[in-house]
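Inverse folding, one chain.
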């Protein structure tokens, strides 16, 4: 019997995987046997991540992609199919947040950029991979969202709106593609020690407040979310779809 967490034979695309949560997910999935496609905007950063995976005996291919450009998203999926002939897991991890401040001061251009990169690109990716997954008997779409989609904020409003939209996207994909054995789930991390969130965890006042109100009294590490990504791609999660898994150290249930 195959181990339920074994990813041997799987092919996984992970966007935004040159660093942070995406890189951790790629490394963990490769350790579990998957062939991973490392992708982000900068080819050299992707090559560095892929080299680290290969050094540990894993298989990694690099296909750079700016998720805000549809032609590059299409090339990412087409390149993966050309290389491996299948896609088993699509990890929609890349995201942007170009603004920090109240919604009342947010330019329309910033709103469009966030929604295009954090929501529309995920729809593009899902629409490209789901038909292929259904033809091969199934697959998994994992969207890395945020507890920003659950909580209100006075500084990250549009980011939270985009992440809440990703919850709805996962649910709708689950309904549309479930009959063809394609699953879709979201992960909602809390504050994680990544370059993306550096402005938050390097702020002593913010970090003290966050850790004080978190039951675990700390912020997360990238591999703690990467492991959940790998779980959702595995047979262990084969009866899960349309769900939002919160991994925040207990922040959203704390006082």
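Residues assigned per position:
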């Amino acid at each position: 019997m195959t181990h339920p967490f074994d990813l041997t034979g799987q092919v996984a695309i992970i966007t935004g995987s040159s660093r942070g949560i995406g890189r951790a997910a790629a490394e963990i999935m490769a350790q579990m046997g998957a062939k991973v496609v490392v992708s982000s905007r900068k080819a050299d950063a992707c090559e560095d991540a892929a080299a680290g995976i290969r050094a540990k005996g894993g298989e990694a291919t690099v296909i750079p992609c700016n998720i805000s450009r549809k032609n590059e998203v299409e090339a990412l999926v087409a390149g993966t199919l050309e290389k491996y002939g299948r896609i088993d897991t699509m990890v929609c991890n890349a995201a942007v947040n170009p603004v920090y401040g109240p919604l009342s001061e947010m330019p329309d251009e910033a709103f469009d950029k966030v929604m295009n990169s954090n929501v529309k690109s995920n729809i593009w990716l899902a629409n490209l991979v789901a038909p292929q997954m259904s033809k091969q008997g199934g697959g998994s779409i994992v969207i890395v969202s945020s507890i920003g989609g659950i909580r209100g904020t006075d500084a990250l409003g549009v980011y939270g709106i985009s992440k809440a939209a990703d919850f709805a996207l996962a649910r709708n994909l689950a309904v549309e593609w479930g009959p063809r054995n394609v699953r879709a789930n979201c992960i909602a991390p809390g504050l994680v020690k990544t370059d993306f969130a550096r402005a938050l965890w390097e702020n002593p006042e913010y970090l003290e407040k966050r850790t004080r109100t978190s039951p675990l009294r700390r912020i997360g590490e990238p591999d703690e979310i990467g492991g959940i990504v790998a779980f959702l791609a595995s047979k262990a999660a084969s009866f899960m779809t349309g769900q939002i898994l919160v991994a925040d150290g207990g922040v959203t249930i704390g006082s």
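The chain has a mean pLDDT of 95. Strands lie at 11-15, 35-39, 59-62, 89-92, 139-144, 182-189, 244-247.
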